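Appendix C: a fully annotated inverse folding record. The material below is reproduced so that readers can follow the format used throughout the book. The structure is listed first as tokens, followed by the designed sequence.
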């Protein structure tokens, strides 16, 4: 065609566009869009070279379906969105944009390549990556070619389709028919570039990729799948997109070593070797190591330590979240999952799926009448076409899997229990090297033992070994922070230098003699400090560099060990020997030298850093997690138990026999002589009011569990009605408050280490005792939600006022020794308890402890304790309180009442001491830094009568403090 003819055709096309823009020459309606994703992309195509891509009317948005596609005189068919996949069509449309951005009117093959390469997660990029080509280099070569093409300056009549562009699409259609596909896809277009003499062939030649390599890369990605819909690219390499190859991770040494769990791994292997229903599901509490079992299986497959049916298999972990993410349209999720299952089936048993949190497949993707993942998996699971390992917790298995009996029967359960403390220590020892390498520190064996023991004892609501591993990890991270941060000693010197520098600037302007002398001294001190700073910085940097060097050598050693394992697996014995007896020995020598240098430096006394995690570091982390003081965690159990009576007597006055009985019960439990499936101790305190029953419970809680808040107090007078029993374990399902749980069970579930005090047990309804029977005998209660709450780490105390009058009468009518009187009282009170409580309840109590009324000596000691508490409160107001022995005796006599115990003492002190001090503080008689003396004055009432004692409060001068002995 001549140039003049081309010009005439171009003018005719522009005239047609103008007529349409002003409303003339109406065009037929466009064809319906090929898919929902198409509505954002369209283009105006014309015949080959010399034909215009007619622009849309100004009132329309670009790339909308406002015009039918034009026909090409040389193209075999019409260029319409319906013949392309979504990603391929986006590339075609993007080519027009690429030409416009490059200020080029003719849309050619290079623009199409650029558009395909710029697609996010595009298939073209994946194909080039699979062929071993860097996508950045392909894009750079394409941009370089585009930059050499002629540009158009100023307004143009619109983009023009180039002959190479049309040729690429025609060849892509041929490849579509060759593959037996229904739509032109990106891989067809890429193969068409191999026949493009203008751009494609030179590009592939520069990239050193031939047609065969490209075909192999395409085959590796799409496999045997056919393109039967307009979004096939999302289904190519579905396992690679939505799964993680655990055997490959094991081969590269990315998985932590799995210690123990041999029985569980063996059971999984046994189930996987079955003909049908060969699908194990690992169930257990969170943190016990369910996923680790699957990782252990992957490591055994890599080592070849599995039976023949599992040799050289791949274990792929399926990411259900990735499968669901971005699945917007109906059926998209099912399409992704079916693509995954198709790849697994096509592997002929070479792939084993692992689905962590397998309960998520129930209901996954079930929207708008679609099938969920569970129903899609059922047929394949039952026939043995798909070997699948699942992992989930007991609660979620019961909630989701067990409800679907058809799904449950296709899985075989493998229970994964919590390991013992000894097993946890073994697991930590196996993981120690990995954590040392990651953090660049050393971890002592004592730290591992402390992590297992302390986490088991003090961290509740979580399971071993997870909580012990977390302790070690956090302690190592804390030490790593200390190593990389500036040492405290150096930081203090830096701050001192800054302070001196500021003072120096201030003194420079002063001319008096004192300021000059101070400035001279300051400069000398500053020089000395800077020298010290320099020395400390050098020591710190040197020590830190040694630690960094040691860590880098260890990392290199780990990498070499992995290479040795890989060489031995591939039977490359010469390479393995070269690494083992050459590189590895050299690294070990370097490591030994670096460690010796570090030891020498540390022994020189210049060391500023620690490099080893100890049991003290573990105790500090536990203290931060639980609030238990570090000193209590480190104090040995034996020392604490030997001092138990002394600690209890600091707050509980008198009651020697009761305190001794409690201490013996606790020691018996701690020595391992009591039943481990029952509470630590179950005690019944009986005696008059105000003699220390509740106080002993509080003191015991503080001693055993380091805080008085560990006392869970249940006032049984609130449970006098039959229906109130449900408040202990929670309301039944369907009742208001069902989700809240019980007052007793929830409190113990949150704080398993506690003292549970049932106050005034005789006032409770008889049905309450039915619950207590199970608690006292088995050490557990099942709440309304089916959760089992353990009381094996609790001390159960029940108080009762039964026999109070009997105790008082016995003491009045006998002059025997305390021990003899105690035995008489105990027999009588226990007999009275038998008449009140049922035999099966009393039979489950470890010890009955009878509290005696307090005598005057014990009351006086209680007065001193109460006065000391007042003194501590006044000290916060900067007022000092002192008292005389006479005042103590006087207050004791006023507050003594055998029937009411020690409670009247508190009221007397409140009325006669606290009220009077408060009044005189407000009047201004007592001020800050004053000392107030509580004393007794005697005043005669009448001749022949004993003088009456009166409590007096007076402010003392410093000279009068010497005779007061109770500081």
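Designed amino acids, in order:
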């Amino acid at each position: 065609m001549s140039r003049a003819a081309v010009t005439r055709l171009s003018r005719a096309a522009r005239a047609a566009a103008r007529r349409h823009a002003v409303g003339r020459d109406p065009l037929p309606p466009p064809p319906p869009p090929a898919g929902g994703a198409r509505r954002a992309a369209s283009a105006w195509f014309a015949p080959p070279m010399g034909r215009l891509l007619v622009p849309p009317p100004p009132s329309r948005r670009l790339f909308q379906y406002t015009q039918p596609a034009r026909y090409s005189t040389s193209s075999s068919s019409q260029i319409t969105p319906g013949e392309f996949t979504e990603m391929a069509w986006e590339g075609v449309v993007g080519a027009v944009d690429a030409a416009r951005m490059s200020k080029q009117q003719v849309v050619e093959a290079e623009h199409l390549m650029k558009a395909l390469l710029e697609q996010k997660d595009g298939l073209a990029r994946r194909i080039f990556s699979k062929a071993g080509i860097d996508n950045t280099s392909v894009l750079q070569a394409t941009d370089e070619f585009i930059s050499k093409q002629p540009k158009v300056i100023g307004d143009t009549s619109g983009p023009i389709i180039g002959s190479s562009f049309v040729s690429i699409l025609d060849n892509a259609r041929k490849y579509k028919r060759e593959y037996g596909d229904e739509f032109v896809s990106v891989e067809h277009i890429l193969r068409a570039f191999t026949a493009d003499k203008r751009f494609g062939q030179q590009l592939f030649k520069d990239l050193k990729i031939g047609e065969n390599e490209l075909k192999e890369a395409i085959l590796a990605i799409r496999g045997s799948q056919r393109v039967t819909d307009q979004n096939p690219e999302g289904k190519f390499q579905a396992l690679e997109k939505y799964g993680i190859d655990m055997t490959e991770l094991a081969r590269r040494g990315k998985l932590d070593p799995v210690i123990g769990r041999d029985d569980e791994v063996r059971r999984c292997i046994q189930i996987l070797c079955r003909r049908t229903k060969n699908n194990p599901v690992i169930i257990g509490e969170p943190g016990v190591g369910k996923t680790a079992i699957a990782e252990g299986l992957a490591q055994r497959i890599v080592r070849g330590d599995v039976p023949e049916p599992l040799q050289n298999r791949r274990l792929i972990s399926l990411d259900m979240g990735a499968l669901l993410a971005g699945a917007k349209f109906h059926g998209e999720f099912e399409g992704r999952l079916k693509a995954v299952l198709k790849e697994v089936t096509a592997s002929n048993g070479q792939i084993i799926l692992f689905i962590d949190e397998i309960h998520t497949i129930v209901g996954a993707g079930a929207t708008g009448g679609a099938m969920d993942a569970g129903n899609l998996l059922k047929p394949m699971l039952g026939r043995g076409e798909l070997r699948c390992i699942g992992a989930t917790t007991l609660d979620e298995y019961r909630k989701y899997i067990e409800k679907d009996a058809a799904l449950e029967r296709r899985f075989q359960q493998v229970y994964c229990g919590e390991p013992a403390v000894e097993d946890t220590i073994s697991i930590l020892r196996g993981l120690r090297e990995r954590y040392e390498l990651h953090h660049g520190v050393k971890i002592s064996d004592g730290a591992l033992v402390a992590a297992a023991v302390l986490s088991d004892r003090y961290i509740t609501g979580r399971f071993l070994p997870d909580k012990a591993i977390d302790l070690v990890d956090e302690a190592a991270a804390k030490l790593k922070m200390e190593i990389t941060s500036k040492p405290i000693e150096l930081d203090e010197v830096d701050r001192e230098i800054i302070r001196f520098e500021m003072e120096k600037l201030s003194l420079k302007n002063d001319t008096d003699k004192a300021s000059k002398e101070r400035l001279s001294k300051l400069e000398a001190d500053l020089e000395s400090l800077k020298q010290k700073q320099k020395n400390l910085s050098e020591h710190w940097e040197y020590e830190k560099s040694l630690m960094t060097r040691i860590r880098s050598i260890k990392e290199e050693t780990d990498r070499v060990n992995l290479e040795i394992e890989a060489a031995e697996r591939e039977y490359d014995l010469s390479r393995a020997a070269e690494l083992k007896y050459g590189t590895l020995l050299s690294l070990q020598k370097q490591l030994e030298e670096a460690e010796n240098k570090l030891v020498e430096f540390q022994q020189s006394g210049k060391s500023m850093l620690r490099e080893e995690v100890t049991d003290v570091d573990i105790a500090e982390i536990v203290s931060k997690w639980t609030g238990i003081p570090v000193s209590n965690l480190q104090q040995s159990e034996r020392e604490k138990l030997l001092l138990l009576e002394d600690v209890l007597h600091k707050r509980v006055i008198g009651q020697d026999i009761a305190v001794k009985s409690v201490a013996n019960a606790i020691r018996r439990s701690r020595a391992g002589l009591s039943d481990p499936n029952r509470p630590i101790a179950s005690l019944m305190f009986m005696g008059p009011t105000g003699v220390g029953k509740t106080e002993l419970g509080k003191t015991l809680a503080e001693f055993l569990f380091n805080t008085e808040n560990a006392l869970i107090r249940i006032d049984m007078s609130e449970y006098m009605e039959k229906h109130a029993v449900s408040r202990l374990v929670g309301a039944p399902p369907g009742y208001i408050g069902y989700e809240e749980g019980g007052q007793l069970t929830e409190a113990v579930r949150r704080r398993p280490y506690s003292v549970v005090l049932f106050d005034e047990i005789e006032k409770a309804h008889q049905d309450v005792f039915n619950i207590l029977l199970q608690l006292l005998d088995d050490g557990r209660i099942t709440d309304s939600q089916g959760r089992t709450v353990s009381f094996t780490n609790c001390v159960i105390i029940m108080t009762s006022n039964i026999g109070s009058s009997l105790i008082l009468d016995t003491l009045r009518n006998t002059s025997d020794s305390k021990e003899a009187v105690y035995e008489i009282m105990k027999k009588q009170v226990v007999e009275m308890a038998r008449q009140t409580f049922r035999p099966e309840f009393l039979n489950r109590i470890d010890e009955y402890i009878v509290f005696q009324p307090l005598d005057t000596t014990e009351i006086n000691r209680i007065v001193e304790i109460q006065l000391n508490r007042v003194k501590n409160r006044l000290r916060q107001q900067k007022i000092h309180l002192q008292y005389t022995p006479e005042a103590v005796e006087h207050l004791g006599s006023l507050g003594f009442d055998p029937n009411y115990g020690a409670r009247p003492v508190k009221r007397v002190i409140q009325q006669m001491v606290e009220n009077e001090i408060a009044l005189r503080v407000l009047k201004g008689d007592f001020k800050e830094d004053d000392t107030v003396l509580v004393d007794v004055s005697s005043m005669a009432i009448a001749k022949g009568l004993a003088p009456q004692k009166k409590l007096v409060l007076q402010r003392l001068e410093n000279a009068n403090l010497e005779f007061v002995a109770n500081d």
